[in-house]
Fold this sequence. Notes:
Elements: H1 2-26, E1 34-40, E2 42-64, E3 70-75, E4 82-83, E5 88-92, H2 95-130, H3 136-169, E6 171-173, E7 178-180, E8 190-191, E9 200-215, H4 216-226, E10 241-243, E11 255-259, E12 269-277, E13 288-305, E14 310-312, E15 315-321, E16 327-338, E17 341-346, E18 353-355, E19 368-372
Parallel strand pairs: 1-19
Antiparallel strand pairs: 1-18, 2-9, 2-13, 3-5, 3-8, 4-7, 5-6, 7-9, 9-12, 10-13, 11-12, 13-17, 14-15, 15-16, 16-17
Helix pairs in contact: 2-3
Amino acid sequence: MNTLKKIKILFFVVVLSPIYTSCKKDAPPEAKPLEISVVKVLQQDVRLESEFTGQTFGQSDIQINPRVDGVIESLNFNEGSLVTKGQLLYTIDPLPFQEKVHQAEADLAEMQARLAKTKSDYDMMVPLAKMNAVSQRELIAAKSAYEAAAASIKASTARLQNSKIELGYSTIVAPISGLIGISKVRVGDYVRPGAASVLNTISDLGDVRVRFTMSEQEYLRIFREITKKDSSLKGAGKSISLVLSDGSVYPEKGKISFADRQIDPTTGAVTFEAAFANPDQLIRPGQYVKILVVTDVRQNALVIPQRSVIEMQGIYQVYVVGSDNKVDLKIIQVGPAYKDGYLVTEGLSANDKIALGGTSLLKSGSVITPKATEWQPGKTEN
Length: 382
């Protein structure tokens, strides 16, 4: 019997050993902790900017209007080019105005001849009247004719000057140096004076103006803040940022030039104008841009990346990393956005560590391998 038991035991050992070894090899390896990027909660002074939509204008946008009527005879510039002050732009057919000048010159010559005759007659009458050779009535008539001729000289001279001015208006020159636009008229078009008759517009692009509106409530809040003693917003109007339509930030800083004298009763907004240098003439009139104005300054604010925040039905949460590398999902209160971050008003402390997340495998209570990451608002993560 003992021999038989030994054989059975040996059989079980031989048969079950490979099975046991196979089960041991197939056991899953222990899971490694997830490697998650971790950042510190920043504490810093934050200058919050409000965004407004604005439209650009040239430093001077001068409309070119005709001052006499007539047919456009020539265009003497390249549309969309730079022109200089005094440069010839348009000519209106001058023949009608030259004819007026010639007629006025003839009238003046006639009046000068009449003046000479009446003066001679009057000079002859004076000594004769003293000798009673002519009546006082005749003397007075001669004097009146002379004075009337003198007055006619002044009127004729004025008409001649006016005719020359009209002739001068038949050539239209640039009132300022700047960029000229597309002509509204062509050679052969008939034009006449009037505010609605615009030939072209010249814009001085040395500096540009941007007009934007601000709500009455925002204006009142900022005004009250600026008027406080030692306000942190003092000087904010001298560092205005401009964002172009492609999302790029214009390199030059601007400053607020003025605010309108009244709040528009139809919109409840006040209009502001900011001035920007335009050395490369990148900005042109008529562009729609965004204006960024510092409207609030938060001292020692807590800032975290927006991508670290989980938002669900108005509740904001972040994964806080403990000293044991275990994460805890925590509800926080967020304030305004700041660049690519949020200001945190409740729920976190300075230098707390939070996970950037980005994976659905991360859960509250998970142990992670933290990967320290430097982060600054508006800057690419390293």
